[in-house]
């Protein structure tokens, strides 16, 4: 593989002149236009490619970012994949390479994340759906970081998220407007900010409509299909012989998928016997034509990379980051086949 010294010999100039000519600094006066053209021609003839490590040392940039996510769950994580798609698009637009750094659980974060900040990347995007610990003094200050759906707003960093409370509110209000009155809320984990806010929105919509929510009609589970399946089966078992709810408002699409599986396993049909709504609008929700709250997952990934690039550039210049630290994107209802309107006659849970 040709080296910078080889290019210098081929062009008949010094190594310093080659370095200056290949640095991309068009306004540089260190080499003349004629010398630059000669160096570029020599590099092309030799098929010279700059050493990435050397360039990183010279410019204090690797032009690489890391994407950290918890992928301990064995189920396919469509939420992760769609946000990652946005991260890759944002990185491509910013001419950055992207590395994935998986965690086996959020308890690994205080050890694993600082270890990643060893110079291999310029910054990190952390999909921190369950990173809820306020004691974040372990965060490395020298590596810019942007979180997506984090719990607390991390000091000196940026968080990107969807308007979860508004999403829980608008879907519940929409169901109530269609005439649903007995709605089961199958929310995400307790003390996870996004999950809590979606349930708060669900309850606020009922309060505004003057409709009381039964105490046993709000249950919490994990953001997984298995969590939705187990929670729904347990609720049906405890309410056997009682009227079936008219609809189930789920805190995520994955919860909704598990809920549908549990209901159909009990001989109930969705949406003929009971309606279902999700939250995310992932690929599978679109394929199943499930009514859901759409959060702009791809755009969240792109915006996270955009904010990260601003943080990186501000740090490189030794300046304060002047952009927003809490970026909240709007959500909307996507009405499909799983929300046709309430049944006229309630069914009894078998």
What is the structure about, briefly put?
The chain contains twelve helices and twelve strands.
Describe, in plain words, how this protein is organized in 3D:
The chain is α/β, with parallel strands linked by helices. The protein has helices at residues 4-11, 15-22, 33-46, 52-59, 78-93, 109-116, 164-177, 193-209, 225-238, 253-265, 283-288, 297-317, and strands at residues 64-70, 97-103, 123-127, 145-148, 158-162, 183-187, 218-220, 247-250, 275-280, 292-294, 326-329, 332-334. 42% of the residues lie in helices and 16% in strands. Mean pLDDT is 87; it is low at 25-29.
Give the % helix. Answer: 40-55%
The biggest beta sheet reads:
6 strands, parallel
Gyration radius over CA: 26 Å
- Give the helices and strands as they follow along the chain: HHHHEHEHEEEHEHEHEHEHEHEE
Estimate the global geometry from the Cα principal axes.
Answer: elongated
Number of H/I helices: 12
Which structural class is indicated by helix and strand composition?
alpha/beta
Mean pLDDT: 87
Strand content: 15-25%
How many individual β-strands?
A: 12
- Biggest β-sheet: strands ordered side by side in the sheet: 2-1-3-4-5-11
Distance between the termini: 72 Å
Q: Give the uncertain stretches in residue-range form.
A: 25-29
């Amino acid at each position: 593989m040709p080296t910078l010294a080889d290019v210098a010999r081929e062009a008949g100039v010094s190594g310093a002149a080659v370095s200056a000519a290949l640095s991309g600094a068009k306004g540089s006066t260190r080499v003349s236009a004629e010398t630059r053209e000669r160096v570029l021609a020599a590099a092309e003839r030799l098929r010279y490619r700059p050493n990435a490590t050397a360039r990183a040392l010279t410019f204090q940039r690797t032009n690489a970012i890391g994407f950290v996510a918890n992928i301990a769950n064995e189920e396919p994580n469509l939420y992760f994949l769609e946000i990652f798609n946005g991260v890759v698009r944002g990185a491509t637009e910013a001419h950055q390479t992207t590395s994935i750094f998986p965690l086996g659980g959020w308890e690994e974060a205080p050890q694993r994340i600082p270890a990643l900040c060893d110079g291999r990347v310029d910054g990190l995007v952390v999909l921190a759906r369950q990173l809820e610990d306020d004691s974040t003094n372990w965060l490395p200050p020298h590596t810019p970081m942007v979180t997506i759906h984090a719990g607390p707003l991390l000091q000196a960093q940026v968080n990107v998220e969807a308007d979860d409370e508004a999403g829980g509110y608008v879907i519940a209000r929409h169901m109530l407007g269609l005439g649903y009155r007995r709605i089961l809320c199958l929310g995400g984990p307790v003390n996870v900010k996004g999950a809590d806010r979606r349930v708060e929105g669900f309850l606020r919509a009922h309060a505004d409509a003057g409709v009381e929510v039964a105490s046993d009609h709000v249950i919490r589970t994990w953001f997984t299909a298995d969590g939705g399946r187990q929670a729904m089966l347990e609720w049906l078992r405890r309410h056997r012989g009682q009227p079936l709810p008219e609809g189930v408002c789920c805190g995520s699409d994955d919860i909704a998928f598990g809920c549908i599986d549990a209901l159909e396993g009990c001989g109930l049909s969705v949406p003929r016997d009971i309606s279902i709504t999700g939250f995310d609008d992932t690929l599978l929700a679109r394929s199943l034509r499930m009514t859901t709250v759409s959060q702009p997952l791809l755009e969240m990934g792109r915006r996270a990379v955009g904010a990260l690039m601003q943080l990186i550039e501000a740090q490189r210049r030794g300046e304060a980051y002047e952009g927003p630290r809490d970026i909240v994107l709007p959500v909307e209802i996507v009405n499909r086949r799983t929300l046709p309107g309430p049944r006229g006659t309630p069914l009894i849970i078998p």
